[in-house]
Amino acid sequence: MKTHLFDLAVRAAMSRRRLLQGAASLGALSAMGMPKGALAQDADLRAQILAIPGVGAGSPTDQHFQQVGELCLGPTKANVAEGEFAGVELTFMGLNNQNLHNILFRGFLKPWEDYTGAKINWIDLAQADYNPRLQQAIATGTVDFDIVEMGAPFEGDTAGRGLLDEMPDWVKEQIDMADYVAYLQPPVGTWDGKTYRITIDGDCHTFAYRTDYLSDPGISGATGMTEAPTTWQQVNDFSKKVVGQTDPLTGSPAFGFLDPLKYQWGGFGFYFLEDRATAYVKHPDDPAWLFDPDTMKPRVNNPGWVQAIQDVMDLMAANAYPPDQVNADPNATAFSQFLGGTGSMLTWWGDVGSNARTSDTSVVGDVVGFSINPGSDRVYNHAAGAWEEPEGANFAPNLAYLGWGVYVTNRVSGDEKKRKAAWSAAAHLGGKDISLWMAAYPSGFQPYRNSHFNFDEWEAAGYDRAYIEDYLGSNQESYNHPNAAIEPRIPGIFQYYSIAEDELVKGLSGQYGSAQETADAIAAAWEGITDQIGRDNQIKLYKASLGM
């Protein structure tokens, strides 16, 4: 990416609101007790790995992954003797999504294997296949992996069933868990007071938008907008009015917001409907937004959720999406469409920000801005059974998935050598310094440690200051938002999400008569899942997850 052109391209279009957000993110660092310029224990090492291959030098390769893995072996060498795990074989299950995740882990762990003598075998899964594969292993009692890349929502299905190995104290010290951002601190990663998770990600969805769409005279004339939308009402209005205009970067037809209409994505696609819904249904006075905490009765068919579905139906009717959008899953909207120059807005996990500047597939790195997810002019108060119009709109960032982590299963619990090897491999991936590299380069992960928000390190790596304040600020503001929508760590959560995707797609294809009927079908399916799992226990765990 031509990062030196960013200020010229963006500053003219950057609104006062975005500049203030950058300043606010600096203030937030001070509020967290982190002095400006604070670094982790080895500033020289961090600077060295951030220069591999260098921001603007193209996508990293396996050679780069191995270089970074080798340079970050110091903590491993402090706890493990050379060759200590000779003869140990471990099986690692994780994603191969967009050639990231497991693909990077292979490179990072190759120097670890060479040093320790262990060997790792890999189970690579597509995103849509992840939940079915994990649930099958749990249901049939055939867990065939020693280490698993997994999100906190699955902790109820795994830790709650006694399938995980408890983290040793030496691992906690090696990875510096105190550095995690506040919302990823315990109880996330724990169950019944025991710690099981090494966090490697800080998932939340943020709003990415094209700044050149806001400065283009033709588009501004058609839409009436010169600043980024802040509410879903504005997003929808922009998306309808931009139809028929020309994309200022590519010369192709212009489009507004990119909903992934192929929502069926193994449960992960439901997050993208949640992005719209949380602004409508997450009331500041109510921690619940998916279920009623006293009964587990679904809220997914209340007027706020129905409005979210209706938004998508209305945009489909207005032909506001690119052709064949019904076959676009979330990977397509982010990596093929938005980063490739199609469309002007989307919500996605925060790593779109690092990919925009460090991936060969991105053409928008000089013309992209970020904020928290859009809010809504009105919010449904479930307790009152009525819509309200709060002053300044209602914002409820979607902290979708609580981030990926690395977990060790109880398959190794009876073999101390194998157990230490598994935890050592996991700790290497979750190390403080290697995590900064993963946050800054395409990895499938986004910032999740307090030490990731040192703007000076990112600027020295090749990001310009305005861009990184904007990008990191959107993540930090989402994590710390007082009305953030946090999903529950309850058993079966992805069963709920997966069946919701199925019913949603049916509704969008016309198999149901309205948005309300679609939402009612999802609610009925959710009731069936709750009854199957056990309502009383779900109520108890759901209340606990909400801090009630």
From TrEMBL:
Which coarse location class applies to the principal site listed for this UniProt protein?
A: periplasm
**SUPFAM superfamilies per the UniProt record, alphabetical:** Periplasmic binding protein-like II
Cellular component GO terms held in the UniProt record: periplasmic space
Could you list the residue ranges forming a coiled coil in this record? none
InterPro entries reported in the protein's UniProt record:
Bact_solute-bd_prot1 (IPR050490), SBP (IPR006059), TAT_signal (IPR006311)
Q: Where is it localised?
A: Periplasm
Pfam families named among the record's database cross-references: SBP_bac_1 (PF01547)
Q: Which PANTHER family match?
A: ARABINOSE-BINDING PROTEIN-RELATED, DIACETYLCHITOBIOSE BINDING PROTEIN DASA
Name the family the entry cites: Belongs to the bacterial solute-binding protein 1 family.
Protein name, as recorded: Various polyols ABC transporter, periplasmic substrate-binding protein
